[in-house]
Description:
Number of strands: 23
Bound molecules: flavin mononucleotide, manganese (II) ion
Oligomer: single chain
Strand content: 15-25%
Structural class: alpha+beta
Largest sheet: 7 strands, antiparallel
Radius of gyration: 24 Å
Amino acid sequence: MAYSDLREFIRAxxxxxxxxxxxxxxxxILEIAAFxxxxxxxxxxxxxxxRPKGYGIPVLINSFASMRKMExxxxxxxxxxxxxxxxDLLEMRAPEGWIGKLKMLPKxxxxxxxxxxxxxxxxxxxxxxxxGFSLFExxxxxxxxxxxxRFITLPMVxxxxxxxxxxxxxxxxxxxxxxxxxxxxxQTHKQGAEHYRRMRHHGHQRMDVAVAIGSDPATTYSAIxxxxxxxxxxxxxxxxxxxxxxxxxxxxxxxxxxxxAEIVLEGYVELDELxxxxxxxxxxxxxxxxxxxxxFHLTAMTHRERPIYATTIVGPPPMEDYYMGxxxxxxxxxxxxxxxxxxxxxxxxxxxxxxNLILVSMRKSYPGHAxxxxxxxxxxxQAMFSKCIVVVDEDVDVQNTREVAWKALNNxxxxxxxxxxxxxxxxxxxxxxxPNYGSKMGVDATRKWLxxxxxxxxxxxxxxxxxxxxxxxxxxxxxxx
Length: 481
Ligand SMILES: Cc1cc2nc3c(=O)[nH]c(=O)nc-3n(C[C@H](O)[C@H](O)[C@H](O)COP(=O)(O)O)c2cc1C
Ligand SMILES: [Mn+2]
């Protein structure tokens, strides 16, 4: 049964021993973040700070901060179950004969059940405030000492594409500037930024934006998924939770937000206004430097009675976002394999902070195949940011970073096997020669073929025969080891 809201998810975490309530005062300036950092790095529970210093609103953090919590969030025994559900859907072919057609009906019905529904009333509007409210009422964290201020870090940011009318929901951090304005940190490659550019192109002055904080976990999670433009995150959230997301219309705009949200910020972005945002201790483990970003103006704040403020911190990996990203890696593999069936597996180790490193194992079928896979990945949605792609043969387990380092480094002749290319890079890359534009590196660490000009013999990996190992197993015990 899908969680009806954040509170049901909190109860589920608690029942599974994955939540710790902190009943005493902890400061939202640095202290909550330091607490959360320590918890995630020691495999600790999600934390519910019941008394953030100076505020009456509790703070939830680290609710996705391990694979176990991701499983509770998505109500699965393993996130691979979702990957399998996607494969089932993708394998849905045109049915043959009437039996085939009948068999399809439940799947089609299931698909229909994913679509979001608009409802007239939502808990997120139990309290509606169009005046006399302030962002300073929320226990927004300052995460790191050199941060430019306090940042809302787990928001679902809703906007609409003026050309297609389609909705987008992305997670973009928001720096609290004052009572009624915040930064809107949608990076240039993201859908919010594209809507902004389209709105400007059409000569508008303002763009409606709505921000929801704290919903059922699948809906919040959908905001970070690297979906193609114009694919509705709320539909995908419905698929993830196996139940439609209920949406309610905002009080001061035509946008819709999840009805179960704890807190909603309604407002607009002025299309010719930028303000300095940052610095911010980012998920690279470095500070993102201050930069110019659009400004979100609040026209209303609505919330549930006794709302809960959901947040996260990013910083030196691994942090909560590593686990959110790991689940994306698992869930999206079948989609990647639809376009690249030769890919066996991919892995993004925590130290690579997603965009810096992707390890790919593949079944090589023709000369240059590994390079074809690199270029395909650089052309695939947000995988375009991959600064370093290491391609290995299918017998290498890319989930085992040590195995990849060992085999890949043995297999490369660097001058021959490293490929450089130019293109868009992640906005968070502080080393690229220009913001958002720089070089990437592909490493072809597959075994080289004659057809690739390799004429020397290629050695096998050293392995002991199984029967010898079994025999030694006995001798081992005999030796009393
Ligand atoms: C905790 C967290 C914070 C994030 N903050 C930002 C951000 O400030 N700006 C940004 O562009 N992307 C940020 N992202 C990544 C986007 O949410 C992600 O790229 C998403 O797919 C964008 O959706 P879109 O394609 O609909 O724009 C963040 C992700 C997480 C998990
Ligand atoms: Mn999107």
